[in-house]
Each structure stands twice: as C-alpha cells, then as structure tokens.
Amino acid sequence: MQNPIDKIRLTRASRSALFIGIGSSLVLLLFILMGRTDKDLNKSKQTRIDLVAFHPQQVEKPTVEASAGPLAPPADPVTDSQDPKPSRMEPPKLQQYLVPGDISVVSKIVGNKVCAECHPGEHALHAGSGHARTLKPAGKTTVAQKLNGTTVRDTESPHILWQYLVAGERLEAEQIKEGKRTCIPLDYAVGSGEHGMSFVGVQYSTSLQEYTGIEHRFSYYTRSDHMDITPGQGERDRGSKKQEFGDTGRTMNKTNLTKCLDCHSTITSAKKAGDFDPFTIIPNISCERCHGPAKDHVEAARRGDPLEKLAMPLGVESATPARQIHECGTCHRRIDLVSPSMIHEDNHELARFQPLGLQASACFNDGKSGLKCTTCHDPHGKVSNNRANYVNACVNCHQNPSQSKCKVEPKGDCIQCHMPKRTVSEVFEFTDHWIRSPKKSK
Ligand code: HEC
Ligand code: HEC
Ligand code: HEC
Ligand code: HEC
Ligand code: HEC
Ligand code: HEC
Ligand code: HEC
Measuring CA to CA, which residue among 343, 360, 384 is closest to residue 435? Predict the structure, then answer.
C-alpha cells in the first residue's frame, strides 16, 4: 500500500536514485562530532575518530537504553538503593520499565494545548523554549525562507553546487554536479536554530518496506549565519563509517533515523514501538515527553479530585536529582551514555553534556547534596542569563559552614571561573557543567 507522499518520494528517488545505500550501522551524533582544537585533544587521528564516535550506542559496557521519556518512573538509585555507590564516576544503576517508544500510552497523550487551560505560565514559557521548536517541516522555517533561491558551493568538493528551493512543507536541495541536477527533498528541520539547524529527508524503501533517511550534507550555522558542511560529515570526521557518507549527505537506516528524531520529538510513531512513522510522529519535546501522559491527570483535575490523585509520572516530588539526571540525560547525555575513555577533565567537548558534567562534579555527590538541573533552571523556559541567580545557587550551599569555601574570590562571579563557557566542535559555545577547581582543568 502506498500513500501519496511516498509516491512523490519514490518518483523523486527513481529520478535521483539516491537513497539506495542504507547499510549504515550507527547514528553518529550531530554537532558533537568535529574534534576540538584544544592542544590536549586531537593530537592523533585516533582522538578525532573517538570524538566522532561520541554516541550513546558506543558505550563500552552496555547500559540502559535511551527510552522515550519517563512514561513510567524508573527506580531512583538514591532513594531505592540502601548503599549508594561512593564513586561519583559510577554510572547510576537505573532500571528501565519501558521499551523505547512504548506506544501503549499513546491514547493517554492529550497534547500541550490542553495543559494551557490550567497551567498557562508553564505553557507560555515552554512555547518559547527550544524544546517546543526543535523539529519542524523543513520548508516552514525562517532559515528555509532565507535559503530559498540561493546557491552554496561544497568547500570540500568545489565542483558541486547546491541550490535551495522552498516547496510547501519541504525544502528542496538540488545538487548540481557536472551539469547534472539531482533533487533531494528535505522533510525535517532538526534544531531550533539556537545554535544551528540540520535537515533530514525521509524516503520509503519499497524493497525494505520501511523508511530510511538522509542527513543533508549542509547545515545552517546561526552564529555565522551561513550554510556549511554538517558537523561530522567533513572529510576528517568520517572515521570508519565511510559507507554512510556520500556527496549528498549521510544515509540513515530506519534505526538511525528513528534515534535521530527521537531526541527531538515526543514519540516517533504511534503505531509501533521504536519505529518511525511520518504520519503519527509527535514532533518537539512536549509537556508529556517529560511529565508522562496526562489523560488521567486532566480527568482527575476536572473532577476536582484531591491533590494526591493528580500526581504525574514525573512531578515535583519525583523530580529528584537522580531522576533529573536520568530523564534530562537521556537526551542531554549522562555518564553511562558516553564512552568512559572520553571522560577526562581536558575533554572540553563534554561541555555539551550537562547531565554528565553535573554527575562528575563534587557538588553533586551522587545526588546526596540535592543539586539538580532545576536548582538553577526552570525546565520550561529558555536558559536564563541572569548571572546573579546562578551565583545565589552556589552561595546557598557554599555559605553553609560545613562546606568548603573559595579562597580566591568568595564573593565573585562563581560561574565565570567554575562553570566557564567552552567552545565545542570548533564553533558552538556551551557552559561547562562539570563544576571544579579551575586549576585542575587548565
Ligand atoms: C527528548 C529529549 C530531551 C529531554 C528529555 C530533555 N531535553 Fe532539553 N533539549 C533537547 C533538545 C533537542 C534541545 C535543543 C532544542 C533546540 O533545538 O534549540 C534541548 C534544549 C534544552 C535547553 C536550552 C533551551 C533553550 O531554549 O534555551 C535547556 C535548558 C534544556 N534543554 C534543559 C533540559 C532539562 C532541565 C531537561 C530535564 C528536565 C531536559 N532538557 C530534557 C532535548 C531534550
Ligand atoms: C541522544 C539524543 C540526541 C540525538 C540522537 C540527536 N540529538 Fe540533536 N540535540 C540533542 C540535544 C540534547 C540538543 C541540545 C543541546 C546541544 O545542542 O547539544 C541537540 C541539538 C541539536 C541541534 C542544535 C539545535 C540548536 O540550535 O541549539 C541540531 C541541529 C541537532 N541537534 C540535530 C540533530 C540531528 C540531525 C540528529 C540526527 C542525525 C540529532 N540531532 C540526533 C539530542 C540529540
Ligand atoms: C524538559 C522537561 C519538561 C517539559 C518539556 C515540561 N516540564 Fe513541567 N516540569 C519539569 C520538571 C523537571 C519539573 C519539576 C520542577 C522542580 O524541580 O520543581 C516540572 C514541574 C512542573 C509543574 C509543577 C510546578 C510547581 O512548581 O508546582 C507543572 C504544573 C508543570 N511542570 C507543567 C508543565 C506543562 C504544562 C508543560 C508543557 C507546556 C511542561 N510542564 C513541560 C520538566 C518539564
Ligand atoms: C483542568 C485543569 C488541569 C489541566 C487541563 C492540567 N492540569 Fe496539571 N495540575 C492541575 C492541578 C489542579 C494540579 C495540582 C495543583 C498544582 O500543582 O497546580 C496540577 C499539577 C500538575 C503537575 C504537578 C504534579 C506533581 O505530581 O507534582 C504537573 C507536572 C502537571 N500538572 C502537568 C500537567 C500537564 C503536562 C498537563 C497537560 C498535558 C496538565 N497538567 C493539564 C490541573 C490541571
Ligand atoms: C546543592 C548544594 C551545592 C550547590 C548548589 C553548589 N555546590 Fe559546590 N559543592 C557542594 C558539595 C557538597 C561539595 C563537596 C564538599 C565540599 O567541597 O564542600 C562541593 C564542592 C565544590 C567545589 C570543590 C570541587 C572539587 O573538585 O573539589 C567547588 C569548586 C564548588 N563546589 C563550586 C561550586 C560553584 C561555583 C557552584 C555554583 C555554580 C556550586 N559549587 C554549587 C555542594 C553544592
Ligand atoms: C549550578 C547551576 C546549574 C545547574 C545545577 C545546571 N545548570 Fe545548566 N546552566 C547553568 C549556567 C550558568 C548556564 C549558562 C547560562 C548563560 O548562558 O548565561 C547553563 C546553561 C545550560 C544550557 C544551555 C547550553 C549551555 O551549555 O550553555 C543547557 C542546555 C543546560 N544548562 C542544561 C542543564 C541540565 C540538563 C542540567 C541538569 C543536568 C543543568 N543544566 C544544571 C547553570 C546550571
Ligand atoms: C576569579 C575566579 C574565581 C571566582 C570568581 C570564584 N572562584 Fe572559587 N576557586 C577559584 C580557584 C582558582 C580555586 C582553586 C583554589 C585552590 O585550590 O587553591 C577555587 C576554589 C573553590 C572551591 C574549593 C575550595 C577548596 O578548599 O577545595 C570552592 C568550593 C569554590 N571555589 C567556590 C566558589 C564560589 C561558590 C564562588 C562564587 C561565590 C567562587 N568560587 C568564585 C577561582 C574562583
């Protein structure tokens, strides 16, 4: 059975015969990838390849799989374990009660609009955040409007030109190579554009009877306001997965396509767990991706049930330090999702992984200090740049007589010295969440 969209895609495919290559084995994470210019890093090609391989799937010891959010609460290692591990580098032992993308809960998802009625504050904040804008039809973005009609030259293969055209919901990328034109339809814009935006095209393969994807060769970089080679796709970043890369981009098999979109959406398919379905995907990180399905909650609230009946799978009480590391870290990356060989103080690429940083900090103390993401952030809104509030958070704990004090500047801007900005992948700035003495990290 073929639906109309597939048909268009198939026609295009036979025109361009582009999407045949699939057999890729791993999703490489976007934007993490290019090796850093730090002196200590990238001395050898091996380091660069290690950085390219920076992905949850490549943990040396298999640990918990990324799941589709807290639709059922995992055990909390701090409250459930009698004897918490003293080492702060030990991955938390969490149990997963849910298969990734469990769809048995789909009928209980009600959508953000319903929440607005009773939680207008959270709803308004969330609507303006990156979480609510991280996956869109490619043609509907302002970046696509800007690209419409423009041409870009491939800096690594200067004989190849790309021309962009907005076609409704899609962005069409036309490759011009040796006089031949090949059209690649791009369906999704991934990323809000806070740092950048990448484009993904999906394609139904009749032989495999499933969707495959292509991550476009070029991405938009917000700071420099231009299109350039997608991080991880440059010559030097390809590592050993060469077969995934072509001059049109990186091919993704169904698994890799699903993984890519899963961190940027609420569910990727309402039909089958762990699958991708363009008709039932719920894009963006909605309220219920974090809090769990809310149908019962809404019905209880409307009936005027007592407060204890209104608890959500992830609510105020259950959002403990370990739980936040686990849930936020499923996407933002926690220690157990990163290869141990990558975790050392000189690897500033780690600044991209805030939960990992926090877990590695003495301040976190395996969750026992109470430090969590929401100590410093409202999980609903954009990141605040009110420095005084962050400093207050530090001082709140460190003024306690039992805590160590800063001998250098006990009243200064703690963040500037202890949570500095780092340049990641050569172009992006992230805040280092591994709170430590600056002398240790050089
Ligand atoms: C389903 C995956 C996922 C989960 C779970 C998740 N995030 Fe995010 N988060 C993202 C993505 C993707 C972005 C980038 C959004 C964009 O395109 O700008 C992001 C962006 C952010 C930002 C920057 C937002 C802005 O607009 O400035 C903050 C802060 C943040 N997340 C905090 C959290 C916290 C805290 C949690 C846990 C309570 C969490 N996230 C859980 C995927 C996730
Ligand atoms: C393990 C979860 C995960 C996977 C898989 C993942 N991302 Fe992300 N992505 C994130 C998080 C978290 C952020 C926000 C923090 C950051 O930029 O690192 C993000 C940020 C981004 C951004 C920058 C958004 C902005 O403007 O700040 C882009 C672009 C992006 N991702 C594209 C992709 C593409 C394309 C894929 C698949 C090929 C992908 N991501 C796979 C979690 C993920
Ligand atoms: C990125 C994950 C994430 C998303 C998305 C998210 N929340 Fe939350 N929310 C949290 C966390 C974590 C807490 C607990 C905060 C704390 O530690 O106090 C919370 C707390 C709340 C609370 C309780 C506030 C209080 O102090 O009593 C409400 C109500 C709420 N969220 C509603 C929403 C609504 C409505 C949406 C969508 C518009 C939403 N949330 C989206 C993570 C999220
Ligand atoms: C008809 C009103 C109503 C609607 C609709 C509603 N809520 Fe609530 N919600 C409440 C009330 C009442 C409480 C308890 C008092 C409070 O915390 O404000 C509550 C509390 C919460 C809490 C804190 C619960 C806890 O366990 O700590 C979260 C999280 C939350 N709501 C999320 C949502 C989300 C997400 C949606 C939409 C999918 C939603 N609510 C829709 C009325 C509503
Ligand atoms: C929830 C409480 C809490 C908060 C908030 C907190 N810390 Fe800590 N911090 C601790 C604990 C506990 C330790 C370990 C015991 C000690 O050194 O007092 C610690 C240790 C440290 C250390 C020593 C690190 C090492 O490797 O020896 C530094 C530096 C530090 N904190 C700085 C900060 C800064 C800067 C902030 C704000 C960005 C901050 N802390 C916020 C609890 C906290
Ligand atoms: C001790 C305070 C503190 C805690 C705890 C904290 N953050 Fe942050 N976070 C910051 C500061 C400071 C910034 C930079 C704000 C700015 O740009 O002015 C930041 C920025 C961010 C950003 C924006 C991108 C970046 O790196 O600059 C994300 C995403 C983020 N934090 C996620 C998280 C997550 C997820 C957690 C929990 C694992 C967390 N944070 C816990 C202080 C904190
Ligand atoms: C100008 C940079 C700077 C500022 C600002 C600063 N610190 Fe420090 N801090 C340092 C350095 C450098 C060290 C390591 C000193 C040493 O070990 O001799 C340090 C050490 C510490 C320690 C560890 C002390 C110990 O005995 O191990 C703590 C805790 C700490 N700072 C907290 C803070 C807090 C909280 C703030 C904000 C109120 C702050 N610092 C502001 C540079 C700074």
Answer: 360
